Amino acid sequence: MIAIIDYDAGNIRSVEKALLLLGQEVKITSDAKEIQTADKVILPGVGAFGDAMENLKSRGLDTVIHQVVEQGTPFLGICLGLQLLFERSDEAPGVDGLGILKGEIVRIPAAEGLKIPHMGWNSLHLSHNGRLFEGIKEGSYVYFVHSYYLKAQDEEIVKASTKYGVNIHASVEKDNVFACQFHPEKSSEVGLQILKNFVKVQPDRDV
């Protein structure tokens, strides 16, 4: 069973729908035991970093997420779910993220001709042999909606990037933790392949 963490952030149903299309058993839940015993866990979301962290903490889900990651369960953050895995965000100064991965979330700088939020299809540059991108061609297009972007501390964990005025770390992977700034569930066949690749990931019990 794949658990989708429910913490009052948007975009949960579209993730569920994509996984059901792939024939997966899916449960949208905020129950600690269901999340801890799931085969895989997904943290989706759109919205504000500070509000999201408050919602996770008020439900004790920040602790549950750390437990799931530490026990080696494959874990996928999507959009805001990626951002929350890191240490801090310009969107909410003074609010700590989950700190599972090292790096920070910064605002996309204004530039002539760039609309913020960044909404639309951008091509990916693939690097470091990410498991989510098996069978995905260099330059494939995926769908983004965001005003803030990731600067990961360790370039080795960055498996895909894109350009939107600046170089954006679009997807990361470290051990059993995966994350995408873009929305695979809204990225047509490419996105479904990425989710299919996540479904294939085996638990990392050495974590």
Give an overview of the whole structure.
With 207 residues, the chain is an alpha/beta fold. The chain has a single domain (2-200), classed as Class I glutamine amidotransferase (GATase) domain (Rossmann fold, 3-Layer(aba) Sandwich), CATH 3.40.50.880. It is 26% helix and 30% strand. It contains six helices and 13 strands. The chain has helices spanning 12-21, 32-37, 49-58, 61-70, 80-84, 188-200; strands at residues 2-5, 26-29, 40-43, 75-78, 88-89, 103-107, 118-123, 125-126, 141-146, 148-152, 158-164, 166-174, 177-180. The strands form three sheets. It has an eight-stranded mixed beta sheet with strand order 2-1-3-4-13-12-11-8, sandwiched between helices. Strands 5-6-10 form a three-stranded mixed beta sheet. A hairpin with a 2-residue loop joins strand 12 and strand 13 (177-180). The longest helix is centred in the C-terminal third of the chain and has 13 residues, at 188-200. The radius of gyration is 16 Å and the shape is globular. The two termini are 21 Å apart. The mean pLDDT is 94.
Indicate the topology.
Layout: E1 2-5, H1 12-21, E2 26-29, H2 32-37, E3 40-43, H3 49-58, H4 61-70, E4 75-78, H5 80-84, E5 88-89, E6 103-107, E7 118-123, E8 125-126, E9 141-146, E10 148-152, E11 158-164, E12 166-174, E13 177-180, H6 188-200
Parallel strand pairs: 1-2, 1-3, 3-4, 4-13, 5-6
Antiparallel strand pairs: 6-10, 7-9, 8-11, 11-12, 12-13
